[in-house]
């Protein structure tokens, strides 16, 4: 674990309020601080879907750029859900969340998570894609999940680690943690390279 000792001399900043991303860094045994700065999460409409999460993760580093010190490493991230060439973001209402889950029911979709790691000199990008297969969900199941778990902070209106994931996801192809919001193994690799 030589690189963990090396990282102790660096100051890691997590530029995300996501409890899942916070947990991932804690699980990796890293010391870090959370520092939040608001960003308008918009992307160019012509941007290929495969690049949206990386674009947004990089965009979230911009407010920090002028203040990053030599010993600091900033980590930002973004996760998108893609279905039929459409990006499903965080739902703004019960109705929108219900429509999203209804559209995912009985089908597969892609989840793309990206993390941008920045120093005051370099930028590293970690990205991964996972395919998720949902069973056919009944309206009552969707309503119960939305009323109980209120997943309005999650792309695609669901958390794989929650009730809906346990009863509704038949299989995944790729990383489970990627669906939760971070390509953890690739972030670890980037940190070891820094």
Number of helices: 8
Percentage of residues assigned to helices: 25-40%
Report the biggest beta sheet as strand number plus sense, adding barrel if it closes.
7 strands, mixed
Radius of gyration of CA atoms, rounded to a whole number = 17 Å
Beta strands, count: 7
- Outline the low-pLDDT stretches: none
Account of the 3D structure:
The protein has 194 residues and is an alpha/beta fold. The chain has a single domain (2-193), classed as Alpha-Beta Complex (Maf protein), CATH 3.90.950. The chain is built from eight helices and seven strands, in the order H-E-H-E-H-E-E-H-E-E-H-H-E-H-H. It has helices at 2-7, 19-27, 49-59, 94-104, 139-149, 163-168, 176-180, 184-193, and strands spanning 11-14, 32-34, 72-83, 86-88, 108-118, 123-134, 169-173. Strands 1, 2, 3, 4, 5, 6 and 7 form a seven-stranded mixed sheet that branches.
Summary?
This protein has 194 residues and is α/β, with parallel strands linked by helices.
Write the layout of secondary structure elements.
Layout: H1 2-7, E1 11-14, H2 19-27, E2 32-34, H3 49-59, E3 72-83, E4 86-88, H4 94-104, E5 108-118, E6 123-134, H5 139-149, H6 163-168, E7 169-173, H7 176-180, H8 184-193
């Amino acid at each position: 674990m030589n690189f963990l000792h090396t990282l102790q001399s660096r100051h890691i900043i997590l530029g995300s309020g996501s409890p899942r991303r916070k947990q991932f860094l804690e699980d990796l045994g890293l010391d870090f601080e959370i520092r939040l700065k608001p960003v308008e999460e918009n992307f160019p409409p012509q941007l290929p879907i495969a690049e949206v999460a990386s674009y947004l993760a990089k965009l979230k580093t911009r407010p920090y750029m002028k203040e990053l010190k030599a010993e600091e490493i900033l980590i930002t991230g973004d996760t998108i859900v893609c279905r039929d060439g459409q990006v499903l973001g965080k739902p703004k209402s019960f109705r929108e969340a219900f429509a999203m889950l209804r559209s995912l029911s009985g089908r597969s979709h892609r989840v793309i998570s990206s993390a941008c790691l920045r120093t005051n000199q370099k930028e590293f990008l970690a990205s991964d894609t996972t395919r998720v297969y949902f069973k056919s969900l009944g309206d009552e199941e969707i309503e119960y999940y939305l009323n109980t778990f209120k997943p309005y902070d999650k792309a695609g209106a669901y958390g794989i680690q929650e009730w809906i994931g346990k009863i509704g996801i038949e299989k995944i192809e790729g990383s489970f943690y990627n669906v939760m919001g971070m390509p953890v193994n690739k972030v670890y690799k980037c940190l070891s390279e820094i």
